[in-house]
Amino acid sequence: MTGAYKDLVDRLEEERCLSATDGYRRLLAPDASPEDIAYLHDAARRVARAVFGGKIYARALIEITNRCRNNCLYCGLRRDNSSLSRYSLDTSTIVECCGKAYEAGFRTFVLQGGEDPAATVESICSMVAQVHGLFPDAAITLSLGEWPDAAYAAFYEAGATRYLLRHETRNPYHYSRLHPPGMSLDNRLRCLETLKQLGYQTGTGIMVGSPFQTYCEIAEDLEYMAALHPEMIGIGPFIPHSATPFSGFPSGSVDMTLRLISILRLMFPNANIPSTTALATVGKEGRVKGILAGANVVMPNASPPEVRESYSLYNGKMCRGREAIEGLDALKRELAGAGYELSFEKGDFNYQYV
Length: 354
Ligand code: SAM
Ligand code: SF4
Prior knowledge:
This protein is α/β, with parallel strands linked by helices. About 45% of the residues lie in helices and about 10% in strands. Helix 1 packs parallel to helix 3, helix 3 crosses helix 10 and helix 4 packs parallel to helix 5.
């Protein structure tokens, strides 16, 4: 192991931040040895254990619509993908999915979807209020993209307390290569700032290995997150979708995704960091590897089985077996095999841990 790499990991664990050029970029360098990388993962795993014990929080993911007004170049739900069969779940179906997840033990529902042109602030508030009224002891996380400040305030008022909105990249030029003209990084960042100010537990993050991404962009992302202090961080590899302009790009690296999970765990010991479906999709044993790198959340799919294939962000997306609520027993066994326990606690961000 190189002493310099070990020193950087130790410094990150102690100080929780590094400089972009001398710190993060060196931790991500392609010539790091397997021993160096193992040292990084060991440190992150130890920190996650100190905060969460051996618990892995379960969140039920309900994909409420695959309709989207936007045309992000990487995403299979993009407006111009005419090969997709589109759906939007009505409130009674969403409530039914939440009910099934609740019965299975879940106490967090993540309601995610595209920016459905038919959705209004009123329709989302009414749906959130119904779920909140029926399951008052469950946390509602929304992941419904960019809205005006007043809309986020109304969703919060209706009962949603957590919001996931990956910033995708903090570099304006990189952003402009991932999105069509008309979408703006400034607006994305405005949304994240508002969510924090309103008191949401706020999640952000990036795709690892998205087209045109370099170590410089990732280092900028880490600096941005250090300033934002997100309570949740979603990190998964980019995976191409055949009906998008990025169909010919390769998937992001599993190694780099795992290193980033570990770096972020050392930066944010208390943050809720999922081992993502994308990681499970590209990496053999990806879900467990994410946990052994410091992740503490899994999000089994609780959407109606008949629409799951249509929530097609990328090719080969896993939505069954251990990736779904029907496969909970297998998931529990998998986690137990790695020395962890699936927990249905709401797992609110723990501000106490220092
Ligand atoms: N529409 C909302 C938004 O964009 O924030 C929420 C749904 S969107 C599908 C959720 C996340 O999926 C995005 O933030 C993006 O990072 C991820 N995603 C989209 N296309 C992907 C791809 N090809 N590979 C990996 N992740 C992808
Ligand atoms: Fe729509 Fe989100 Fe996909 Fe962009 S990433 S096209 S906003 S669903």
